[in-house]
Amino acid sequence: MPPINFKANFVKNINIQQAVNNGYVPKQVALVELDTKDKNDISALKTVADKWENTTQGYTRCIYYDATKDFKFSDTTEHYYALTLQDKNYKYLQPENILGLALFSKHNNNSTNELKWLQVNPDTNYNNKPKPNNRLFKNIGRSLVNFIKEVSDKTINVYSDADAIDFYEKLGFIHKKGKSMSKFFSQNIMLILKFY
């Protein structure tokens, strides 16, 4: 029987890219899954949501709200993933080391899964630097999506901002006509990743 852990659990190491001099080199970071029943994980998630909120479109706040909601669907398993520079002691996840977050919903009685939210630390985002190559890290969002593709056994739906469609299409998603189910993000466009 596996041990019961109530904390962020290490899943695997993932390579992203870190700026060094005039180029990028591989940088190993930890992919962890947050435990929504753990007060330290929720505290770290809240701190990140508060810090990133001013420069993002609210997705980090949505991840936090989803993690703390009382109601859970019985046929859905939600996975809260983070990429972090932290390399040990995940019981105390350090918010300042979190590079990206994703909420992935696995549906037990449905033919599709859903990437509900994806947010990269705005300090590593193209929009916050004068030139794209001035980013300290890159491939954070790509690494999170690629991991989710690995663990999904079904088609993955994502409702994307128009600005992020190119990003998702480069990762294999296909634009599908459909509207967002969220009244807060009504301009989002549905994309799907099909497995053949």
Quick recap:
The chain is of the alpha+beta class. It is built from 4 helices and 9 strands, in the order E-E-H-H-E-E-E-E-H-E-H-E-E.
Characteristics:
alpha+beta; disordered N terminus; 9-stranded mixed beta sheet
Architecture overview:
The chain has 196 residues and is an alpha+beta fold. The protein is 21% helix and 36% strand. The protein has a nine-stranded mixed beta sheet, with helices on both faces. Residues 1-6 and 179-188 have low confidence and may be disordered.
Distance from first to last alpha carbon: 35 Å
Return residue spans where pLDDT drops below 50 for at least 5 consecutive residues.
1-6, 179-188
Structural class: alpha+beta
Q: What is the overall silhouette?
A: globular
Order of helices and strands: EEHHEEEEHEHEE
Put simply, the count of helices is 4
- Rg is 16 Å
Helix content: 10-25%
Biggest sheet layout: 9 strands, mixed
Strand content: 35-45%
Strands of the largest sheet, in order across it? 6-1-2-3-4-5-7-9-8
Q: Look at the structure and give the mean pLDDT.
A: 82
Give the beta-strand count: 9
SSE layout and pairing:
Layout: E1 9-20, E2 23-34, H1 39-52, H2 59-68, E3 76-84, E4 98-107, E5 112-120, E6 137-138, H3 140-151, E7 155-160, H4 165-170, E8 174-179, E9 189-193
Parallel strand pairs: 5-7
Antiparallel strand pairs: 1-2, 1-6, 2-3, 3-4, 4-5, 7-9, 8-9
Helix pairs in contact: 1-2
